[in-house]
Structures are given as structure tokens and as C-alpha cells.
Amino acid sequence: MSEQTIDDLVRVDALVKTFPLRNAWGRTTGTVRAVDGVDLTIRRGETLALVGESGSGKSTLGRSILQMDEPTSGTVTYDGVDLTSLPRSRRAPYHRSMQVIFQDPFSSLNPHRTALQNVMEPLTVLAPGGDSRAQAIEALAAVGIDGDAVHRRPRAFSGGQRQRIVIARAIAVRPGFVVCDEPLSALDMSIQAQVTDLLLRLQRELELTYLFISHDLSVVREIATRTAVMNRGRIVELGPTAEVFASPQHAYTRHLLDAALSIDPVQARRRLERISTRPDLVGLEPEGTVLTEVSPGHFVLR
Ligand SMILES: Nc1ncnc2c1ncn2[C@@H]1O[C@H](COP(=O)(O)OP(=O)(O)OP(=O)(O)O)[C@@H](O)[C@H]1O
Ligand SMILES: [Mg+2]
């Protein structure tokens, strides 16, 4: 892929993450290559969507970029600094700059603490010395939670409001980069559009860069600047979203789009989750070895 430019906030080179494969007795019987040699750049201010079937390695790639999973090999560079060779003791600023929003707001919030306490917690750890209470109140207000509501516990909120609290907690520390891992999947359809709008508004106001992992290709088509398609740990296609959707070049991308866009979103999600068991796709190993530029900015594994 191309050389890093100052427009690239995140750069991933030859990234590999393996996990031991264990049998029912816990004995190691091999390794899973969850991320299998990924090269990728994420540009400042963009939303890069990451799509692919269940188990293709999307979350592992996101977690490896954030150093939540220690990469097996390869490098992750953030704002010009190679995080993979940085001693742990010097990683703290990056734990603040790089945040994550997971699918399930229930498990990401502490149920025994109020909304305000939940948002204050990372501030006191990652940005000590500031007025964490005022910053948390400001972040909660930015997502539409204010007044006495900030003193309620997660259970007292609706699913959409809980996800807003999770988003407030992520932005309160003023990150530059946020991995959104299926941030809408646990929400009702009617709430998804509101939370999507919120994420887009915060991105503009706070100049955030997003890695947006999603099964919902209709949302991806609407909000992503570029889209990367992942299959069995590899990126098989990457390009401007409109172009990838209008003119998919890799066979796997075409299968994914056919499966997802021809039917309603709920069914599409189930089909995407099951796609790895479809006999016609099981044999579809990522073809090729090199991401090759087929038109400006549009790369395909060839
Ligand atoms: N902690 C782990 N230990 C062992 N194997 C893991 C671990 N995390 C992920 N894997 C394996 O790595 C592969 C990729 O998983 P990952 O969760 O990254 O996929 P995904 O694309 O995010 O899937 P989904 O769409 O279902 O969230 C899978 O085979 C999974 O079983
Ligand atoms: Mg996942």
C-alpha cells in the first residue's frame, strides 16, 4: 500500500494475531489466525467501515489496533508513533487517545455506579488533575443526558440512553480515534438512526476518526468514507464506500453484498452471521496475496 502521509492517523502493517485453538479438554491443537497479515491506513477525520462475516476477525483487528490484544507480529502506528515497540509504561497517552464503543452497553457500564460515576471513572484514571466531574457532566450533556438523570444507574435508562452514556464515557477523555464495534446492534431500529446521528455529530464537533465495525451494510453505505472488507483474517477489498458498493471487485465482497442488501436488515444480519456455514462460501478462501490498486484508492486482493 502507499506510503504513510500526515493524513494517516492510524497505520497497520503486516499485522498478525493468532490465538491457540483448544479442544474440549483444553489441550492446544493448533492456532487460529484471527488477523492474518493486514495492511491498512485510517485517515484523520474519516469513518473507515470494517465489514465481513461473523468470525472474520473484525473485532480482533480493532482490539489489536487499540493494543487491547497484543499483536503476534506486525506494527500499529498511531499519529506517527509505533505503539507495538513502545514500552507499556509509555502507552498511557494512547489509552486516552484511542477509545472503543462496544455493542452491549449493559456489560460495558458498571451497574452499581451512576451515569456520572461511570463517565468520571476513565477521566480520573487517564486524565488526572482535571475537573473530572465537570468534564463528565459536559460529555453527558453532549449526548443528551443532563439534570438529575446523571445520578441514575444504568438500569434506569433505556437501551439507547445507555449507549449514549457509553459514548459519553468514550468522548469525555477527548480521544482522537474511536473504534465503534457494532455500536448499534443491540438497539431497536427506531433508536439506531438517532445514535448514528449522534456519532456523526460528535465526529464533526470533536474531529474524531472512526473505525466502524458493522454487520449493517445499509448504515455503512450511509456513513462510511471508505469500506474495508475482511474475510478469514485478511482485507480482501478496500476503497471509497460508494465504489465498493457499486462496483465490488472481489468475489467475497460480491457474495457479502448479495447476502446483505437483497433482504431486510434483520434477516441480513442473521444471514451474515451464518454466512460462514454456507456451503458455497466455505471454500471461498481469500484469493490472491497482495492488495492491488485497481482504480484510484480502490484496492483488491489479487
Ligand atoms: N480471545 C480469543 N481466544 C481464542 N480465539 C479467539 C479469541 N478472540 C477471537 N478469537 C477467534 O478469532 C476469530 C475472529 O474472531 P473475531 O471476534 O475477531 O471476529 P468478528 O469478525 O469480530 O466476528 P463477529 O462479527 O461475530 O463479532 C474467530 O475464529 C474467533 O473464534
Ligand atoms: Mg466482533
Automatic annotation (TrEMBL):
Chain ranges of the ABC transporter domain: 10-257
GO molecular function: ATP binding
Signal sequence annotation: none
Keywords: ATP-binding, Nucleotide-binding, Transport
Protein origin, superkingdom: Bacteria
PANTHER family: D,D-DIPEPTIDE TRANSPORT ATP-BINDING PROTEIN DDPF-RELATED (PTHR43776:SF7), TRANSPORT ATP-BINDING PROTEIN (PTHR43776)
Similarity annotation: Belongs to the ABC transporter superfamily.
Protein name: Dipeptide ABC transporter ATP-binding protein
Species the sequence originates in: Microbacterium yannicii
